[in-house]
Amino acid sequence: MAAGVSGGPLFLFALVVLIHVFCSLPTVVHSKCVLFNFGDSNSDTGGLMAGLGLYLGPPAGRQFFHKITGRFCDGQLYIDFICESLKINFLSPYLESSGSNFSNGVNFAVAGAATEPNAIPFTLSTQVLQFLHFKNRTRELRAQGSGSLISEKGFHNAVYSFDMGQNDISIALKSNSIYKNGGRKFWMYNTGPLGCLPQMPALLKKNDSELDAVGCLATLNNAAKEFNAGLLGLCNQISSKYKDATVVYTDMFAIKYDLITNHAKYGFVNPLMACCGYGGPPYNYRFRMTCGEPNVTACPVGSRYISWDGVRYAEAAKHNSF
């Protein structure tokens, strides 16, 4: 079965209902919801910092956690809001060795991860291999009464969330064994309007003729639309091939573009300007003068900015979108 979810302020409600339906599909009355997430900085809850031993300092984390957490955001990510709504623990990063709780699932997402190997060695294919290792290790430890104690039924009924490129998603679902290892509920996000990230026009714009009516780089947004069309086609192929699988395609492009286009309606200001950055209007973004660097400041706490650092969305925008 394939389904689609797209924009508007009721998206969070619709998505939470959808995930509750996902989690209620098991026949066991007292089954808990288990969520496995794969992706990049949009949903990384600390994987990159733990995996490479790096430090992401203030002002990250100031809005909700009031401390640094490894999230590239001033507060919560969309995956955090979903966990809250489901009344489960925030997902711990797979790469975090201390204090992790994997009883409700695992977050394999790592900031900077891409569909092809790059400076960050955690492609989606690698993340899926990590999942397979986690599942095998869970089996071993479960027999000893330790580990996450997620049951075989828990893995089978879990929701598998993907937020990355279509090529690696194809590998993950068709040949890298999540389906073969029992996964049946797949939740796919398409890519957002890349041309609306403040970083992009700040670095790439040559003249205003390259901008659309909202002020975003049209060529990048068109490329994102083409990518998303291919991803939707892939989701439909998976649904046709695997009749017992449920595939949900979430149109993040429409959701985020609506937020930027109608920012005043949703109570936001400066939709194409980073809250935390350097250089001031119109984008407040300068290469090698990014959030967390010396002399880089952030907008006042409570400001209604859509972009946190020119690349990722602020907590308020994520909450509004989800």
TrEMBL record:
In its keyword annotation, does this UniProt entry include Translocase? no
What UniProt keywords are attached to this protein's entry?
Glycoprotein, Hydrolase, Signal
Q: Which domain of life is it from?
A: Eukaryota
Cross-referenced Pfam families, in alphabetical order? Lipase_GDSL
UniProt GO molecular function: hydrolase activity, acting on ester bonds
Has the keyword Protein transport been applied to this entry? no
The region annotated as signal peptide is 1-31
Q: Which InterPro entries match?
A: GDSL (IPR001087), SGNH_hydro_sf (IPR036514), SGNH_plant_lipase-like (IPR035669)
Ranges in coiled-coil conformation: none
State the family it belongs to: Belongs to the 'GDSL' lipolytic enzyme family.
Protein name (record): GDSL esterase/lipase
Q: Which organism is it from?
A: Cocos nucifera
